[in-house]
Amino acid sequence: MGPSKEMQAAVKNDHTIVVGGGAIGVCIAYFLARRGCRVTLIERDGIAAAASSGNAGLISLGHLPLPRPGLLTTSLRWMLDRTSPLYIPPRPDLPLLAWLIRFARACSTRQLRTSMEVIAAISRSTIELFDHFAEDLKIDFQYRPTGYMDVFRSKDAWNHARRDAEYIRSFGFPEKEIGPDEVYRREPALLDGVVGAIAHEGSAFAEPAEFVRGVADAARALGAVIMTDSEVRSIRTANGAVSGVQTSTESFGCDRLVLAAGAWTTSLAKLAGVRVPMQPAKGYHVNITTPTESLRSACMLGDTYVICTPINGYLRLAGTLELSGLNHNIRQERVDMLIRQAAAYLPGIAEAPVISQWCGLRPCTADGLPALGWAPRVRNLYVATGHAMMGFWTSPMTGRVVSEHILDDSPSIDIHAMRLERF
Length: 423
Hints:
With about 425 residues, the chain is α/β, with parallel strands linked by helices. Helix 2 (about 25-35) packs parallel to helix 10 (about 210-220) and helix 2 (about 25-35) packs parallel to helix 13. It contains 13 helices and 20 strands. Strands 4, 5, 6, 7, 14, 15, 16, 17 and 18 form a 9-stranded mixed beta sheet that branches. The radius of gyration is 21 Å and the shape is globular. Among the domains are: about 5-50 and about 210-280 and about 370-420, FAD/NAD(P)-binding domain (3-Layer(bba) Sandwich); about 75-95 and about 280-365, D-Amino Acid Oxidase, Chain A, domain 2 (2-Layer Sandwich).
């Protein structure tokens, strides 16, 4: 039995602070405000200023989590190579070592199934929710629900992808294997040598920063207060519960605190004595002037893990995973790698003028699942983080589920596997 109407009304009248102005934070603020809650969102920089501003923009339903069987051996081969998809600069770092040990344990068939069951549950209403933002709220975020492809030049990589696609189909996703003729019919700009592709027929892509800013505006229109350039410096607790926060600009009282600050959630949670062990995984993008012959839709270059997304009149090349700590230092060789690897698939990439380059930090748990739920031992503190490379596309469903959990104590999907007590 859920909360009574009186209890629900009391919860709505409480003041909820959401910390984090990325995709997850603004969606939580929106869905709480839509239910009539009093919400203040606090962001240390600007809305969509961090990982939400520069990711590839894929809405990739059924995307496999990072830890999976067989990846450990590949990761060990990659991790010391500055130009590999995964790079870990060698350094003494005990939290990183502990994370890597847990990651190794998570590269199992059992954990993969658990993760995919969660991902499948999140995916089921995702397109419907993105449709809501695009069609009902008229947010212009270049939303294109046309699917995208993973394309391959290597037969070994193609065969591996086909096995993955078969596994993903078992969870109800319409992964379609297509041969070279169909690939070139869909994307005639691709250079010769493609051996096949996986078409993600039910997926989509969009401009992530425009989405986040649009949802923030929608939350504000519903009464949410949004504070930017305001960094949380301390969390006040009394009798085992959060009573407020002190920011760089002022003090706020609250009845409930939601931490949705991406890679910074670990240090914020520590202020309240809550453990959320994650590693910030740096990703890069470079925006280039669109070549004369370019893609019609987003593509993941399967042999290289580089994602090419046509948005805003330019081509975004995004990817890589770098575990180098909480910093925004750009390693130029990794940016250059994106251009070099994309040039093997598309003409004119190497010569195209560079518009901008960027790096951002994804919050990664060792088992590949988000951290979602009430914090242990601290009442009224809720954590929503750890979405890794899935933060953008899982944000609408995360926002809805968090609002359901807070207001009704009855989320519409099973979130047991994401609980904080697992750490």
